[in-house]
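Structure ticket #2291
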Amino acid sequence: MAIYLTKESKVLVQGMTGSEGMKHTRRMLAAGTNVVGGVNPRKAGRTVDFDDRAVPVFGTVADGMRATGADVTVVFVPPAFAKAAVLEAADAGIGLAVVITEGIPVHDSVAFTTYAGRKGTRVVGPNCPGLITPGQSNAGIIPADITKPGRIGLVSKSGTLTYQLMYELRDIGFSTCVGIGGDPVVGTTHIDCLAAFQDDPDTELIVLIGEIGGDAEERAAAYVREHVTKPVVGYIAGFTAPEGKTMGHAGAIVSGSSGTAQAKKEALEAAGVSVGSTPTETANLVLTRLEARPGEQRQ
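Resolution: structure written out below.
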């Protein structure tokens, strides 16, 4: 089992013929992802060779879906065209749009996440590494060779910390890892992933990675308290961030007492979440929580 992405997922890549699209499509194919086509209206009808596989290029997402049955699209288009790309995918009725592009104006993100939601399209991102179900499928830029299939679900604002926790817990492995992105507006939230992992029978523990800025982690803590019965371990990046300075992501900024790492940590701990002070300590807390579950043995 997994959330959002499985071995049956059929993936289109919007912007596949660009440099980033080409590079990461090759990596996704190497990871076993069923990439069924690219989308570029100027190159429709061509094919692109990736090692031993030729991938067709379609003029629109709708054309690609009709020809292949695709249900996922990964967006690698420049920021100025990202809104149009997601709106097109939503109009075509695709189930999942993974928006890797960074630097998208916030008003564009508000527009396309709202529109996609009304159309029934889940957006992951923008400005995110995507998501991976190890051993099954990889939609985005997450390295596929640093962990294995397992029983931990991971949701994270930070791409780099996603990779580090995947690596540190590689001996146990992951059901699905979702990088939701660190922009002020994202299509899929911590809460969305917590709900999905709670319902996934093969996810036994959830890791939640947050960072300074906003109140997403406080809202996630309230959701954990009311709805999540599985153990949750957390990490908040930015304890030493100076007030008023954006740290890495557009949404990672502290204003006064709002959005501090300490406030988020306290909210999560009050909801029963074990929160590490470093990524390595967080990984050790995961091992401890798994050992504490009845019938569990450390691998």
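Closing remark: Residues 146-292 form a domain with the Rossmann fold fold (CATH 3.40.50.261).
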